[in-house]
Amino acid sequence: MSILSTEHLKIGYDEKIIVEDLSFTIQSGKITTMIGPNGCGKSTILKALARIHKAKSGCVYLDGKAIHKIPTKQIAQKMAVLPQSPEAPSGLTVFDLISYGRSPHQKGFARLSDRDKEVIEWALKVTGLVELRNQDVDTLSGGQRQRAWIAMAIAQETELLLLDEPTTYLDMAHQLEVLKLLKKLNEDENRTIVMVIHDLNHAARFSDRMVAMNNGRLMKEGTAEEVMTVGVLKDVFHIDAMIVKDPRTNKPVCLSYDLVELGKDIDNKNGIAQEIVFV
């Protein structure tokens, strides 16, 4: 079942077109990850899906309804968005940050209701931040800070979470910590998650679906096994990749790679660069 979809979407800035004629669907209850080289349009697509950036033409549909026709507050009750490298005002506590996630459910400047406080406590517990509730956000470690922003997003109680590079600037352990949290939210809370990730192996490990983009075009979408192939990675990243199966997860892993050299092509079957003879 589709929760979010695009139809012939055209996105750009002024006269520059970033994405043209994009049509794809996000399946409800799944984790979908967008991959692709820098500047290919991933973050722009995410902004268009969230109605942060207006498309030049085409349409985004949320639950089958054109998103530009849905009131902003209704969208915020359905979809939470976590941008890349968000910043909190100085002196803001973890509890205060998470409380902002309740805004779509409040009227005017009303105080936190019992229900609001209940959800905030739940978000603190799920993200492992109970003991840090009164600590300033700007004093947290990278992983703690990212969990705090995720806690704010899930406090919106939305079915859909959109995250732009949620593991950026985090070390290996904190990256895994954040991704495992998102996976748990997906499995335990049935949250539909759409995220942009640069690490191909993380994308393959934690995704149900992958969307590979390049030059504003959808190159391939499907399962990790369908997208993490020698041929697709060559077309998307121009690399000669060696793909193996992870013994822990049975998901495909890019073990090693090199740049595809001029005048060479990839044997899609075994991942070996073979020289082309031009006659």
Automatic annotation (TrEMBL):
<dbReference type="InterPro" id="IPR027417">
    <property type="entry name" value="P-loop_NTPase"/>
</dbReference>
<dbReference type="GO" id="GO:0006826">
    <property type="term" value="P:iron ion transport"/>
</dbReference>
<keyword id="KW-0067">ATP-binding</keyword>
<dbReference type="InterPro" id="IPR051535">
    <property type="entry name" value="Siderophore_ABC-ATPase"/>
</dbReference>
<protein>
    <submittedName>
        <fullName>Fe(3+)-dicitrate ABC transporter ATP-binding protein</fullName>
    </submittedName>
</protein>
<keyword id="KW-1003">Cell membrane</keyword>
<keyword id="KW-0547">Nucleotide-binding</keyword>
<keyword id="KW-0813">Transport</keyword>
<dbReference type="InterPro" id="IPR003593">
    <property type="entry name" value="AAA+_ATPase"/>
</dbReference>
<keyword id="KW-0410">Iron transport</keyword>
<keyword id="KW-0406">Ion transport</keyword>
<dbReference type="Pfam" id="PF00005">
    <property type="entry name" value="ABC_tran"/>
</dbReference>
<keyword id="KW-0472">Membrane</keyword>
<dbReference type="GO" id="GO:0005524">
    <property type="term" value="F:ATP binding"/>
</dbReference>
<dbReference type="GO" id="GO:0005886">
    <property type="term" value="C:plasma membrane"/>
</dbReference>
<dbReference type="InterPro" id="IPR017871">
    <property type="entry name" value="ABC_transporter-like_CS"/>
</dbReference>
<keyword id="KW-0408">Iron</keyword>
<dbReference type="InterPro" id="IPR003439">
    <property type="entry name" value="ABC_transporter-like_ATP-bd"/>
</dbReference>
<dbReference type="GO" id="GO:0016887">
    <property type="term" value="F:ATP hydrolysis activity"/>
</dbReference>
<feature type="domain" description="ABC transporter">
    <location>
        <begin position="4"/>
        <end position="240"/>
    </location>
</feature>
